Amino acid sequence: MRIRLWRISVIFANMSVIHLLPDHTANQIAAGEVVQRPASVVKELLENSVDAKATKIILNIKEGGKMLIQISDNGIGMSEVDARLCWERHATSKLNVIEDLFALNTFGFRGEALASIAAVAQVEMKTRRVEDELGTHLIIEGSQVKRQEVIASNVGTTIAVKNLFFNVPARRTFLKSDAVESNHVMEEFLRVALANPQIGFSMTNNDNEVFHVLPGTLKQRIIGLFGEKYKEQILSVNESTQIANIYGFAGKPDFAKRTRGEQFFFVNNRFIKNSYLNHAVVGAYQDLMPTDNFPFYVLFIDLDPSTIDINVHPTKTEIKFRDEKNLYTILKAVVKRTLGQHTITPQFDFETPATIQNFTPDFFNRDEIPSPPQIKVDTNYNPFDKGNYHPTQESYREQGNKLNWQQLYQPNQNTNQTTPERTIQPSLGNIDEDAPVQKQFMQIHRRYIVSSIKSGMMLIDQQAAHERILYERYLEQMEKNTGVSQQLLFPVVLQFSATDLVLFQELKEEFQSLGFVLDDFGNNQIVVNGLPAEANEKGPQQVLEGMLEQYKTYKTDVRITKRESVARSLSKRLSINYGKALSNDEMRNLVDELFGCTMPYQTSDGSVIVRMISMDDLEKMF
Q1: What's the mean pLDDT in 444-465?
Q2: For residue 532, what are the β-bridge partners?
Q3: What is the mean pLDDT of the chain?
Q4: CATH number of the domain that 349 lies in?
Q5: Are 36 and 121 members of one domain?
Q6: Where residue 468 sits, what CATH number does that domain have?
C-alpha cells in the first residue's frame, strides 16, 4: 500500500504544470498594467510628489520620456529604510485593512507603481527628510538594487527613470515618436497641475521649458497653462448640494473646439474619465454650439469617499459612483445655469485691466456716435489671378483635364476626332452636341457657380472647388518645397499652448515648405515673419490656430499621411468662404483651375464639388 501511494505522488509531481513566478518576472507583468508608456511613469511620480506635500515640483523629460524622466520635489522625503522599502511590491503607506480603500483621499495606494517602474527601467533616487542630516542615494536596474549609500542632498525627493523598457525591447518598439510621447506626458502633467493650483510646477522637454506656473488660484492656473486668451473664455461654476460640491470653470459656447482634449473631471482632486458625466456637461450646451464641437471645462466634484469606488482600474482613472444618476442631473443643471447667467447678464471680470470695462453711462448718452473703423482693402489683389501664383509646369494629365473642360463648352463638330492619349474624359451623361454654348457663369446666393454645358447644366460648390485646388497645390509644394512666402511688414507674435507648440515642432518642415516663416520666441510664443499669399486676407492668428485645430481632427485618421493631413487642414482654412461675390473672370479662373486638378469632382475628404443636371432631367422637372 505504501509503495502504491509513493508511486502516485511521484506521478503527480511529474505532471505538475503550475509553479510560482519569480519576483522579477511578476514585477514585469505588473508593469504591463501600470507602465504602458512614459506618461504612465510621469503620472505615478507626480502624484507621489503631491502626496509628499511638496510645494514645488519640477519635471524634466528627454526624447519623449524614453531616455529620461526626472522629477524633483521639495516634499517630506523618506528615511533610509523607507527609501529601500518603497520599491518592493505592495509596499504602501495608505492601507492597513481592506476597509481603508473606501476612505482614501490620496493617490497611490496599491504599492505596485514604483516596483513596476523599477522592473522595466534604470532608476536613480535621492531623498532626504528635513530632520535628517544626510540623505539616501539608491540605484536600481530591472528590480535589482545595484547601490545604496548615504549622501548629502536637499530636502525632498528626486527620481530619475532612464532608458524605459531597456530590458523589454519588444515593449519599447510599441512606443510612438518622441513628439507623440511628449504630448501624452504633457497631458498627464496638465491634469496634475490643474488639480493642484496651490503647488508650483515646471516642465522642460529636451532642455526647453514648456510650462512654468506659480502657486495661485484655479483661474490663474488655467490661464498659466493654456494662455491669456482663456481669461475671457471661461465662466465660473460653483454649487453645493447634499450629494456633491461642484466647482471649477466651463468655457463659453462661442469658443468650443472641434477637437477633444480640453475636458477635465476631478473627483476628490483625482482626475477621472467618465463618458456619462461628460454627456451631462455637453447636454448643458445643447443648442448653444454645433453638435460636433466640444466645450472646454475644468470641473471638480467633491464627494464622500465612501460613495465611490476607485479600485476598479489599474490606472485609477475610472471609478464607480453609488448615486450616478442624481450626480448626472445635478451636474447638467449646474453647468446649464452657469451658461444661462452668462447669456442673460454680462460677466465682469475684476482681474482684467480697467480699460476693457470702461463702458460708463456717459458712453451710451453721447450725441455723436463714433464712426466705425475704416478697413483698407487692396482692390488690385485677386486670389484667382494667376499672376499671384506661379505654379510649376503643368503635368500632361492636368493639360488633358483642362482640354476636356474646354470641350464641354464647344459643340462636337467632328465626331471622328480622337482624344489625346491618357486624357480623362469626364462622365457627363448624354451630351447635346448641336447646341452651341458660351462659357458664361452665374453665381447663386454667393455659394454656387452655375453654367450651361452641352449636356445641360453644371453646378459647382465654390468653396469646395477652391479647397480642392489648394489641397493639390499644397501637396505639390510640400513634395517639391516650392511654397511662396509673403513677408510681413511687421512680425506678429502669437501665444500658443504648450501642446500646440509641440505640434508646431512636429510640422516644422511642412510649414516651411508651404511658405510659412515661423520662429520660436520662447515662453510658448511664435514669431510669424511670413505667410503663404492666400493667408494674408485672414491673418496669421486665425489661420494658424484654425489650421492646428483642423489638423488635430485629421491626424487620427491612419488612412492619410501627415502631409495629406496638413494639406487638408490648410486648404480648409484658406478656401474662399460662402458669401463671397465673384466676378465672371474669377469664376472662370476658379473653374479652369478646378478642372486642372487630378480629382476635380470631390474634395480631399470625399465631399461633392460638381453636380451635372442633364437636359432630360431638366425636362422632367417641367
Answers
A1: 90
A2: 485
A3: 79
A4: 3.30.230.10
A5: yes
A6: 3.30.1540.20
Q: Provide the CATH number for the domain around residue 30.
A: 3.30.565.10
Q: Is the pLDDT of residue 161 over 50?
A: yes
Does residue 157 form part of some domain? yes
d(CA 425, CA 403): 9
Indicate if the pLDDT at residue 345 is higher than 50: no
Residue 458 and residue 344 in one domain? no
- Residues 508 and 544 placed together within one structural domain of the fold: yes
SS3 content of the chain, % helix, strand, coil (to 5): 40, 20, 40
Distances (CA, A) of 536 to 122, 366, 387, 473, 542: 51, 37, 16, 17, 10
Q: What pLDDT does residue 376 have? A: 53
In a domain, 542, yes or no: yes
What are the two backbone dihedrals, phi and then psi, of residue 246, each rounded to the nearest 5 degrees? -120, 125
On whether both 327 and 418 belong to a single domain, the answer is: no
pTM over cut 0.85: no
pLDDT higher than 80, residue 291: no
Order across the sheet with 456-461: list the strands.
Answer: 442-444, 448-453, 456-461, 610-614
Whether the Cβ atoms of residue 401 and residue 595 lie closer than 8 Å to each other: yes
CB 118 within 8 A of CB 140: yes
Among 353, 386, 414, the domain boundary falls at: 353
Q: How many distinct structural domains can be found in the chain? A: 3
Q: Where are the beta strands (DSSP E) in 496-549?
A: 517-522, 525-532
Specify the pLDDT at position 104.
47
Q: Do residues 557 and 565 lie in contact, with contact meaning Cβ atoms separated by under 8 Å?
A: yes
Kindly tell me the burial class for residue 16, based on how many C-beta atoms sit within 10 Å of its own C-beta (0-12, 13-18, 19 or more).
exposed
Is 98 a domain residue?
yes
> Cell 490620496 maps to which residue?
106
Measured CA to CA, the distance from residue 575 to residue 590 in angstroms comes to 11
Dist. CA 173–CA 195, nearest whole Å: 33
**How deeply is 277 buried, as exposed, middle or buried, from its count of CB atoms within 10 A (0-12, 13-18, 19+)?**
buried
Contact 565, 555 (CB under 8 A): yes
Whether 415 is covered by a domain: the verdict is yes
Q: Identify which of 595, 542, 594 has the alpha carbon closest to the alpha carbon of residue 570.
A: 542
609 and 544 in a common domain: yes
Structure confidence at residue 151 (pLDDT): 94
From 196, 212, 228, the end of a domain falls on: 212
Nearest CA to 192 out of 264, 242, 91 is that of 264
For residues 583 and 455, the answer to whether their CB atoms sit within 8 Å is no
Q: 544 and 415, same structural domain?
A: yes
All residues at 6 or more sequence positions from 76 whose CB lies less than 8 Å from its CB, including other chains: 52, 53, 129, 130, 156
Which residues, in sequence order, are bridge partners of residue 99?
A: none
- Tell me which H or E stretch contains 160: strand 156-162
Q: Reduce the DSSP state of residue 115 to 3 states and report it.
A: helix
Annotate 409-446 with b (16+ C-beta within 10 A) or e (fewer): eeeeeeeeeeeeeeeeebebeebeeeeeeebebebeee
For residues 71 and 42, what is the distance between their CA atoms, to the nearest angstrom?
8
Domain match, 156 and 303 both: no
Instruction: Pick the closest to residue 241 from 139, 155, 319, 327 (CA basis).
Output: 327
Are residues 263 and 160 part of one domain? no
Residue 344 is part of which domain span?
Answer: 219-353
The reported pLDDT for the residue numbered 33 is: 62
Q: What pLDDT is recorded for position 365?
A: 43
Residue by residue, DSSP assigns 221-270 as HHHHHH-GGGGGTEEEEEEE-SS-EEEEEEE-GGG-BSS---EEEEETTE
Q: What is the pLDDT of residues 205-240, one digit of tens each?
A: 999 888 999 999 999 999 999 888 898 899 999 999
